[in-house]
Structures are given as C-alpha cells and as structure tokens.
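Narrative of activities, Objective 1.

The group set out to show that a structural description can be obtained from nothing but a protein's sequence at a throughput compatible with the screening campaign. Below is one input-output pair from the validation batch, recorded exactly as produced.
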Amino acid sequence: MTVKTKPKSVLRSYEKHLDDRFWMVEEASSGVPASAIFDLIGLTHLNKSFFAGMLNLSTKTLDRYRQGGKQLNPASGELILKIFSLYKKGEKIFGNTEEFQKWIEKPAYGLGFKVPKELMQTPAGIDLIMDELIRIEYGDLA
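Output recorded for this entry:
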C-alpha cells in the first residue's frame, strides 16, 4: 500500500461516526483500542513520542497496550477520536491529508500564529484547530 492511499484507508475506517459527538462520547467511554494510536501515527506521520506525550504515557506503555489488546481510558480515547475527526475535516478542506499535515506544521494566522500541531495536546486545543478549520472552510480568514 502506498503512503498516499494508507492515510486515506486509515481515516475511512474511522470516519463513519466522527461527526456524531454522542457516538464519540460513548465510544470513548466503552474504550478505544490502543491500536487506534498506531493508526493515527500512520495517518498523521507524527511519531509515537508525540502521542505518548499527549496521553502522558511512555512509548513502551503504548507498545504494551497495543500488544495486549488493551483499551485507552475514556479521556485518552476521546483525544484520539477528536484527532481523527480533525483529520477528517482537514482532508475535506485541504483536499488530502498530506496538505493538511503541511498546514498543521506551520504557524496559523487564525490561531495567533501558533503551530496547530502544538495545540493538539489538549481537547481545548483540538477544538481551537477545528474552529479555525471551519473558518477556513467558510472563507473567514480574518
């Protein structure tokens, strides 16, 4: 599978319900599999250390969770699902995940010249990025 199709196929496997906030809450509460983090790594090209830091876990713990088929706690699961949702919106606006990934790596005017990737560490930061994507989608760049 090529790099261009892999992110698309990973996102497609999660996207069906990502616009439904109630589903996200229920899914996070019932337990998102730790393997979803590794799907995100493939989608985002962000490294395991990035997600380990976000979830306040070690990279070894992430590996053990995946190998053991463990599930994330609700707060961690919600963060992971919100990032999938963010990438779904980004792909829609930018045309593909690669272009969206370029955007999140650079300072964004509408985010006070903060780098979106750096805001992805908290649910509120993810919401700020989503709000900015909606503004871009509707042409409100000021």
